Amino acid sequence: MRPFWPLIGVVCLAGCAGYRRTTANRPPAPVPAATTASSEPPALAPTDGRMWLNGSEDVAVLMYHDVVPRKQVWFDVTNREFEAQMASLKEAGANVAKLEDVVAHFRDGTPLPPKTVVLTFDDNTVGIYENAFPIMRKYGFPSTQFVHTAYVGVQTEKGHCSWDQLKEMEDSGLVDVESHTVNHPPDIRILSDDEARAELVDSKAAIEEHLGHPVRFLAYTEGNADERIAAMVKEAGYEAAFNEQRAWMSGPVDRLFLPRFAPFRFDDVLDHWKESAAVPVRGLARVDLQAPGDGLDGLRTPAGVRVTWDRTPLDNIRATRGGDAIIGPDGFAPVPVERQWGLIGRPLFVTDGRKAMCLPYQPWLGTSDAALNELLPGATKAVIGSRWILHNGQPIPGDDRSIRRASVFGWTQDGRPFLGHAQSRVRPNDLAAALQTMGATEAIAL
Fold first, then answer.
1. Are 118 and 136 contacting, i.e. CB atoms less than 8 angstroms apart?
2. What is the DSSP letter of 334?
3. Residue 37 pLDDT > 60, yes or no?
4. Does the N-terminal peptide bond of residue 186 adopt cis geometry, omega within 30 degrees of 0?
5. How many other C-beta atoms can be found within 10 angstroms of the C-beta atom of residue 287?
6. Which end of the chain offers a freer environment for a tag, N or C, measured as fewer CB atoms within 10 Å?
7. Average pLDDT for the chain
């Protein structure tokens, strides 16, 4: 297959931690919020693999560190800033949820209200106990603390909470203590197998011994992890692990590489809730593909635009002008790091030729096609489109700008895939109406 740019095929992407906890690094530039989704698909049974296929809500997992009267480092949040953010969540009608409830949503399909957000804290600084906890208790907001166990009760540049303080917070019913390794290695990937395994296993054991409950979740230090570390996390018995990718937790999710937002993106979360109420695009669409049949000729949109259809679309998808397409049996290539954030929420189509899925794109971490094959084992084709036309049978509203000679891929309600080409300019909303008249339930513009 001749190369295309960008060549996109897998959603497992190396080296995409978007936030570093060092004073040398600066916050990454803001990026557009992901789009959100439609009618909720039926829940699938949880699997023993890495991919959770349920969940129809976009969830923001916020990642805080210290909360202090005055900032000492750029990623600190002041008491006044934190109080203002908690007040904004209450005013917005946010559902501030426990992490375990969000996990149940994506793993099992347990219902979750819109505007769900999770509060997490890394590094166990005493400012969390003295400043953040009283504010969260005032609002009745739960949170999760990720603790590096070698520093519990230890004074470094900052003080760290003791086991008694952690137990006091847990006894309130609002705080859950989970693992952040033992020694907080800046990059666990460079440790030997034995060293990395000890960081994961010993921290879990210490929390379980001191606080008397199973430890289910891990936050990678400085967001760093790879497939080798993920395998150790699974082996150590963690149910889920979080990095520092600046993305929404949106199903399907890779449970060993879950994203979080830094608090300087707090306003983006509020803006996204306003936008997603108008244009919902959530969840996973899936189908068992049937033979394309005899083609679908003569379709005219309400605007009188003629569309023609190919009979063998799975073999005919190619990169379109200005598009992000591709894909084929010659292998998958990771999305370039600089392209990831602009693609979040775009329609991702995956197929093995018999089954197909369409879901909002998320930058799952990885260096191979492992995550894509967790999603659909044996996948041979994957395409990231430019926008949705239909998703789970619902039209996705577009703007009034015309699209010249749009190429559209999708499937009908009886599972027939199609690849269509508009022969002249067509508005997205007109095209969506036309596709519905022919029985299409899923359609993306390439």
1. no
2. B
3. no
4. no
5. 20
6. N
7. 77
116 in Cβ contact with 97 (< 8 Å): yes
Measured from the Cβ of residue 439, the count of other Cβ atoms closer than 10 Å reads: 13
| Residue 72, both tokens | 């000492």
Q: Give the span between the Cα atoms of 294 and 299, in whole angstroms.
A: 14
Rounded CA gap, 100 and 111, in Å?
Answer: 13
pLDDT at 344: 74
Which tokens is 289 given? 């593909």
**pTM of the predicted model as reported, rounded to 2 decimal places:** 0.76
Q: How far apart are CA 223 and CA 384, in angstroms?
A: 26
Q: CA–CA separation, 414 vs 83, rounded Å?
A: 52
Asked if pLDDT for residue 287 goes beyond 90, the answer is no
Paired tokens of 33 = 């919020």
Q: What is the DSSP letter of 438?
A: T
In total, the chain counts a number of residues equal to 446
Strands 381-384 and 347-351 come out as antiparallel
- Label residue 77 exposed, middle or buried (CB < 10 Å: 0-12, 13-18, 19+): buried
**Residues whose CB is less than 8 angstroms from the CB of residue 116 and which lie 6 or more positions away in sequence, other chains included:** 57, 59, 60, 94, 95, 96, 97, 102, 105
The span from the CA of 161 to the CA of 178, in Å, is: 14
Half-sphere exposure for 443 (CA within 13 Å, toward CB) = 31
Portion of the chain with pLDDT greater than 90, in percent: 42
Q: Which 8-state DSSP code applies to residue 188?
A: G
Cα four-point dihedral sign 375, 381, 382, 387:
negative
Which stretch of DSSP H or E encloses residue 270?
A: helix 266-278
DSSP secondary structure of 24-48: TS-PPPP-PPPP-B-SPPPPPPP-S
Contact, 182 vs 148, CB < 8 A?
A: yes
Residue 15, Ramachandran bin (φ over 0: left; ψ between -120 and 50: alpha; else beta): left
- pLDDT above 90: residue 196: yes
What span, in angstroms and rounded, lies between the C-alpha atoms of 324 and 342?
11
